Amino acid sequence: MADMQKPQGCTNLKLRQLMRRVTQHYDEEVGKTGLKGTQYSLLSYVVKPGPIRAVDLAAEMKINTSTLSRNLQPLVASGLLAISPGADARSRLINATVQGQRKRIEAQRKWKVAQEGINQTLGVQRVLALHALIDEAMELLSSGEQGQVDA
């Protein structure tokens, strides 16, 4: 029986290095609008459904509420998002202002430029394969199944 090849190096480190490169690429384009990539993402999550409760937004984005609260602050301060009273005294609704909706459209155009750049640099087939691998890995890790998987 032939020896199975084992991964070399740290998967976490390799993924973090890739994420930094990809983030830099998107931030270069989206940054032209005055937003960071993470701010564009948050703004997009709010614009799509309309007013949304913070707890629902955090769940949708798969982040905790304290991280969400910290990330909301600059967007609220700049007038792109607003927080209003919810259905009861304890809940709050987050919504995009008209200015925020316009900023999202502007940033979305830059995001598309960044995505096309990734597609061109890596090749569409490689990007599709990467997306499929990421989706599969997320599903396996989310289900707690970390055993061997046939490739």
CATH class: Mainly Alpha
Order of helices and strands: HHEHHEEHH
Structural class: mainly alpha
What portion of residues is helical?
55-70%
Which band does the percent of strand residues land in?
A: 5-15%
Oligomerization category of the chains in this entry: single chain
Radius of gyration: 19 Å
How many individual helices?
Answer: 6
Strand order of the largest sheet: 1-3-2
Q: What is the overall shape? A: globular
Q: Look at the structure and give the mean pLDDT.
A: 90
- The CATH homologous superfamily: Winged helix-like DNA-binding domain superfamily/Winged helix DNA-binding domain
Number of domains: 1
Task: Kindly describe this structure.
The protein is mainly alpha-helical and 151 residues long. It has one domain (30-142): Winged helix-like DNA-binding domain superfamily/Winged helix DNA-binding domain (Arc Repressor Mutant, subunit A, Orthogonal Bundle), CATH 1.10.10.10. Helix content is 64%, strand content 8%. A three-stranded antiparallel β-sheet has the order 1-3-2. Strand 2 and strand 3 (92-96) form a beta hairpin. Helix 1 crosses helix 5 (98-122). The chain is globular. The model has no long low-confidence stretch (mean pLDDT 90).
